[in-house]
């Protein structure tokens, strides 16, 4: 890695340096991180996993993702919304996920809030994408200095406040900025990363819900 925050592979292709931090990262970095998402169930999953990550390394969550999906029935939020105390205890006994009672309770609470939001507005995706930052809010250059200095953004603060007002939990501004990066609402692949122009092309053609 150089001071740009990039690393180069044997073929001379440059990538965000975190791509090489764990064996699971290359696929996630190249094919998921920053790709625009409009599917409500996948968006609920991303919100849950970002919430479970709070205070932990993302690689821990990524390695447990399949176990999370099994434990939460594919993150079908209408099913999770029906969970009761017996389900909380079942999840607390599951070694494949993060066994944190507050975070498990938050996932169930947020499933109920997701149901309310979809019933009211028709789509979780439509509601979330309304918080996409305007072009003038985005930096001219996404470099390592920007990454280091900006764990949140004005848009993530607005999104966090709006979700909290609706009763969602574990949706702080930093967590919501990570969600915005993951769901493609912003493209934070570094300048020079080979994935950045591909993600920009996907964002240009993506039909906002």
TrEMBL record:
InterPro entries: Adenine_glyco, DNA-3mA_glycosylase, DNA_glycosylase. It is an enzyme of class 3 (hydrolase). GO terms for biological process: base-excision repair. Its EC number is 3.2.2.20. One of its GO terms (molecular function) is DNA-3-methyladenine glycosylase activity. Zn(2+) binds at residues 16, 29, 189, 193. SUPFAM superfamilies: DNA-glycosylase. Pfam families: Adenine_glyco. It comes from the Bacteria. Keywords: Glycosidase, Hydrolase, Metal-binding, Zinc. This is Tag_3 protein. It comes from Pseudomonas fluorescens. The gene is tag_3.
